[in-house]
Structures are given as C-alpha cells and as structure tokens.
Design a protein that fits this description.
By secondary structure, this protein is of the alpha/beta class. It is built from 14 helices and 14 strands. It folds into two domains: 3-164 and 348-363, Glycogen Phosphorylase B (Rossmann fold, 3-Layer(aba) Sandwich); 168-345, Glycogen Phosphorylase B (Rossmann fold, 3-Layer(aba) Sandwich).
C-alpha cells in the first residue's frame, strides 16, 4: 500500500473540507497510509480519526506558507502527492522534480472565473497561466464535473469524480423532529453570489402570509454582508435561525429536520452550469428543493419530481416558489424519492473506485 501526502490549498478543519475528508476515507479504507498537510492557525501536528495532520501556521510574510508546506511534504518519503486546488498544484512541480514521485491534482473549483470574480482580471490571468504551465506536468487530473473536465482535458488525463454525498455520513433515520412551522433550510457559504440577499428578501415576502421558519447552516466571509444580513433579519422580524458553520459529519440531522432546501446561486461563469453537491445533500436526507434554474438542475428536478426551480435573480419568483413548496402536502413523498435516487446513483460510494484505480496505477 502507498504512503500518500494530501496537500490542501486552504484550511482543512475550519471550515471542514468535506471533499478532502471523503477522499481520505476512501484511500484509508483501501489500506493506504495517508497524511494531510494543511494551512492552519498554528503549526502543530494533530490526529484526525486515525490520520496524521501536519498543520502549518498561516502567519508570516508572503510566500512563507508555501515554503512551510513544501518543506513538510519533503520531510517524508511519500509515494504520491495528492494536491488540492491551485497553490498545491504549483508546489507539486517542485515536489515532483525533487522526489520523482507521481502527482494527482484535484481541481474542484472553476479557478479562473473564481479568481476573476473575487480578485479581478490580473489574478485570473495569473491563475490561467499557472495552470497552463503546471497542469500538463502532473500525472493525473481529477475534477468534479464534465464541463470542467473538458476545460482541463487539454492538459492531460482527466477523471471526473463528482462531489456526491457519502452514504456513511448521512446514515441516519429520515424521521424528523416535530415542529409546528414550515422550515426552509439553506446550507453553505453566505455570499451575494450564493444568494443570501435574495433568500432573505424573499422570505420577508413569504412571511407576510405564511408561518415560515428560515434556518441557515453556514457563515460569512464578508463582514459588511454579515452586518447587513443580521440587521435585515432584525429589522424585518424574520427570526432567522443562524446556526453558523456546521461540521460536515454533523450535517445530516440538521438537513433532515427541515421541510425543504433552498439553493439560490446567481447566474455567472462558475455557477448554475453543473449539479451542486448541496442539492444531493438535501435529497439524501429526504428534502425536496426550491432551486435556482440551470440546465442540468432543471432536468434533474423535473425528471424525478423532487422540487421546483425559480429565477434566482427575481425575488417575486423565489417567494412564489417558496410559497408553493410550503403549501404542498406531498413533501415527504418527494423527499423519499430524492433519497432513493441518491442512494442508487448519486452517492460518493458509487464513484470512489475510480480514485482507487488511479492511485493503484500510479503507485505500482
């Protein structure tokens, strides 16, 4: 079995990186020895469910985190480097050159448009250039959907492993805790592009007619947006249940005990093109969905009758969708269909063998 270093682009623990976690669990079950190397608030060595985690402090001058991560990766004789996202892709060129060991690059974001959206044109251009130089030099690329795979296929071998939920992490009864009001749930990062503003404004309209409870499991990156959202909640008596970040391994009962899930990403280069993990997490815990409209999303939701789609840029459209869902008497039946479909076709366990075959090929 192989000794594998999993190198993270961002903090593994806070917020918890569930894709890294699922991949590490898959590799461990196959008998591989895994060690995680991650940026962290302090330099220390931790143990996480039997896996050694090397944390390096994010304090220091520009470039110091990269140097610390690379030094840590070179300290042991690993058989393979499993690199997540942009920065570890860049490190991998040095690691491969020194050790002559294979590299897998896992790209689970649309990095170029993401950089453009968050940091502007210069950052996106640098990112595109870095990928064009480094990606052809790795041994295999893994990504999350076919559209991103087509973009990356010019650099080498690409395998799609969607970020589906793991059955083992959602293995609880679907029986909900009793509650009087209808509970709508949103899970995920709280940004304008992910729809937090339109969600709050739409819920305000709905609550003028219906006893609806909004529950949110996630947190803000933008302090100004957080102030706006909490103020809007208070001024309009929305009584939002703000849960903050919820550990992925503790998410199942939070989802189950709602009545339907919300997904309101706004249109853009990296949104609404594929099938978001969030939809499948709602489905596996028996929640129908009120979702933004994307070509694949609309097809999935309509085909299996597991919810409805709305114009996520239009507050009236979202409010009407929430009202329709709140009035339906067949929410449990819709949820059971979604649960069955995920277990049959859209779970992590249905795809993880692809990852193990790649590792076996590269390490033998």
């Amino acid at each position: 079995m192989a000794n594998i270093a999993v190198i993270c682009d961002r903090e593994f623990f806070e917020p918890f990186d569930q894709r890294v976690y699922k991949e590490v669990c898959t590799m461990k079950r196959a008998g591989h020895n895994i060690e995680i190397i991650t940026p962290h608030k302090s330099t220390k060595e931790k143990e996480f469910e039997g896996t050694k985690v090397h944390c390096v402090s994010t304090n220091g001058m520009f470039g110091s985190v990269a140097l610390k991560l690379i030094k840590k990766a070179l300290k042991k004789n690993y058989d393979l480097f499993y690199c997540h996202e942009l920065d570890p892709l860049i490190y991998s060129i040095l690691l491969k050159g020194i050790t002559k060991k294979p590299v897998i690059w896992d790209c689970h974001e649309y990095l170029v448009p993401m950089k453009f959206e968050l940091q502007g044109k210069i950052a996106s251009t640098i990112t595109e250039f870095a990928i064009s130089i480094c990606a052809p030099r790795v041994n295999h690329i893994i990504t999350v959907d076919n559209r991103l795979a087509r973009t990356l296929s010019k650099f080498g071998n690409v395998t799609v492993i969607p970020n589906y939920p793991s059955l083992s992490d959602f293995d609880i009864t679907l029986k909900k805790d009793e509650h009087n009001e209808i509970v709508a749930l949103y899970v995920g990062s709280l940004t304008e592009r992910r729809g937090i503003k339109v969600i709050l404004k739409s819920v305000k309209k709905v609550r003028e007619k219906y006893n609806l409870k909004l529950r949110i499991a996630g947190d803000f990156y933008d302090k100004e947006l957080k102030i706006w959202a909490k103020t809007y909640d208070k001024e309009n008596n929305l009584d939002v249940d703000w849960l903050g970040w919820v550990d992925y391994r503790e998410l199942a009962p939070v989802i189950r005990d709602a009545d339907f899930g919300l997904f309101m990403n706004q249109p853009g280069p990296r949104y609404l093109k594929g099938l978001p993990t969030k939809i499948f997490e709602y489905m596996i815990m028996g929640l129908p969905v009120v979702s933004a409209t994307g070509p694949l999303l609309k097809t999935l939701i309509n085909k299996y009758n597991i919810g409805l789609t709305v114009d996520s840029t239009n507050i009236d459209s979202i409010a009407k969708g929430i009202e329709k869902m709140a009035q339906r008497k067949d929410l449990k039946e819709m949820g059971k269909r979604g649960n069955k479909i995920v277990k049959e076709s859209y779970c992590w366990e249905a795809k993880e063998d692809k990852l193990l075959r790649i590792i076996e090929k590269l390490t033998n």
